[in-house]
Amino acid sequence: MQPIHDLIIIGGGPIGLACGIEAGKAGLDYLILEKGALCNSIYNYPVNMTFFSTADRLEMAGIPFMSVGAKPTRTEALEYYRRIYFHFKLNVNLYEGVESVKKVGDLFQIKTSKRAYQCRKIVLSTGFYDLPNLMNVPGEDLPKVLHYYKEPWPFIGQKVLVVGGANSAVDAALECWRKGAEVSMVLLGDEVDDNVKYWVRPDIMNRIKEGSIKAFTRSKVKEIKAQEVVISTQDGEVTIPNDWVLAMTGYKPNFSLLDQLGVELSLDEKRQPCYDQTNQESNVPGVYLAGVVCGGLNTREFFIENSISHAEAIVKDIIAKRS
Fold first, then answer.
1. What is the secondary structure of 179-206 as a DSSP string?
2. Closest CA to 19 of 280, 258, 321
3. 56 C-beta neighbours (distance < 10 Å), count
4. What spatial distance separates the first Cα and last Cα of the chain, rounded to whole Å?
5. Residue 197 CB neighbour total at 10 angstroms
6. Smallest Cα–Cα separation from 282: which of 264, 297, 302?
7. How far is Cα 4 from Cα 119, in angstroms, rounded to an integer?
């Protein structure tokens, strides 16, 4: 007979691991399901990325986060969560994506890419880094258009257009320019976003001011061609030669699991899931939300540092209701 887990956590990022730690402390029979590598979203960050938060604000369960600099790097974060994984002997199934989930009576039935499970409670900690916000323009499906940026080496000597003005776009533009790419940017507003990392923003502003990086402000990409890009600017259409488009246009949560479970979403542009902020339980009894998924399309409200507390609140509620 198929075993019934007390709790299944969908998502093996930092917040999913925090939920596993709390579940283990409480003696719950839990399992974490992660479709990729451990902390898959962080693994897919740019190779040279530096976190905005300091290391101490990312710590969990009393385990120190050691960082060479004040701001930890992607590699340091991956090493920290690797140590967390082994220290707490967390029950994590990696490279096992959840394909469907439904509630039958008092139990949840989960089908993954490998097998089926049953559980009494579910935590959705799926983040938002899986689905890019598309520009929805002709040519976006060309091989030269990338929605994820890793490192600058492939773009040496290339004409690169970076779309977006947030941290990921600015990092990509500066790194590629410094390695010898001819970089242009398309910005919706008059300049890069105000929330760009404070130690990076002056750098990109100066590169734009001196003309090293060409910025098309108040502009949008209209069409992408094999060797060109057409840009709609405030002064009319501009066509520039182009080898690569780095569409750093942000990402959004995968709402499919929320929809399958019947979790209600707000009717405004945020599409924020319905949940109780005191215990993280959604409108569906037994379905809990943790981490950035709580913000819906507002992906700038929840971060690792202000979501770690979700884990303790969730497990505390599960134990209280079981008692």
1. TT-EEEEE-SSSSS-TTS-TTTHHHHHH
2. 280
3. 12
4. 26
5. 16
6. 264
7. 5
For 103, the 3-state DSSP assignment is: strand
Cα dihedral 69→74→78→83 (10° resolution): 10
| Contact yes or no for 33/148 (Cβ under 8 A) | no
Q: What is the β-pairing status of strands 220-224 and 159-163?
A: unpaired
CA distance 251 to 297: 8
Tens-digit pLDDT profile for the chain (323 aa)?
Answer: 678 999 999 999 999 999 999 999 999 999 999 999 999 999 988 999 889 889 999 999 999 999 998 899 999 999 999 999 999 999 999 999 999 999 999 999 999 999 999 999 999 999 877 788 999 999 999 999 999 999 999 999 999 999 999 999 999 999 999 999 999 999 999 999 998 988 999 999 999 999 999 999 999 999 999 999 999 999 999 999 999 999 999 888 888 999 999 999 987 888 899 999 999 999 999 999 999 999 888 877 888 888 999 999 999 999 999 87
Task: Give the residue carrying structure tokens 């060409």.
Answer: 214
DSSP 144-160: TEES----SGGGTT-EE
